[in-house]
Amino acid sequence: MKCPYCGEMESKVIDSRPTEDGEKIRRRRECLGCGKRFTTYEIMETVPLMVVKKDRSRQVFDRDKLLNGLLRACKKRPVSFEMLEQVIDNIEQKLMNTYDREIDSDFIGALAMEELKKIDEVAYVRFASVYRQFSDLDTFMDELQSLMNNRLDDSKK
């Protein structure tokens, strides 16, 4: 590690500990040339997730874009920002666990619908109407009927 004071390439690690969030390692180093101390941070290198859109174009996964879609679906609904952050964390964790760096946007949409269904049915239907691009009232009613049937099945258990 290059010393920020004298440019010497050799240093020794004096202390190592994880940061508060546990995402990085903080290292205190001492330059073997000038003897001054400095801090470095070590982070895990990650390969970005690529989203394959319906038109087959690719773009980097963007948490904020997903959050904005969920916020629109949850507008004026009793869903807290923290709940949505947790939903996105859950989705992102599932995506990371797939071991595939290219994910279809359909898969991400399905995960978002699955998570929304657990927390707010109205937000779920709103999101589904955009995600599934309901073409007419019959398609919309079919989705509502499916939701109602699931609710009845769950109450019988």
Can you put this structure into words, describing what you see?
GO terms for molecular function: ATP binding; DNA binding; zinc ion binding. This is Transcriptional repressor NrdR. The chain is an alpha+beta fold and 157 residues long. Helices cover 46% and strands 20% of the residues. It has 5 helices and 6 strands, in the order βββββααβααα. The protein has helices spanning 63-73, 81-96, 105-119, 121-131, 137-156, and strands spanning 11-18, 24-31, 37-43, 50-52, 58-60, 102-104. The strands form 2 sheets. It has a 3-stranded antiparallel beta sheet, with no helix packed on it. α2 (81-96) packs across α3 (105-119). The longest helix has 20 residues, at 137-156. The mean pLDDT is 88.
In short:
By secondary structure, this protein is an alpha+beta fold.
Helix fraction, binned, reads 40-55%
Output mean pLDDT.
88
Low-confidence stretches: none
List the secondary-structure elements in sequence, H or E. EEEEEHHEHHH
How many individual β-strands?
6
Query: Over the alpha carbons, how many angstroms does the gyration radius reach?
Result: 24 Å
Pfam families: ATP-cone, Zn_ribbon_NrdR
Function: Negatively regulates transcription of bacterial ribonucleotide reductase nrd genes and operons by binding to NrdR-boxes.
Domain ATP-cone: 49-139
InterPro entries: ATP-cone_dom, NrdR-like_N, RNR_NrdR-like
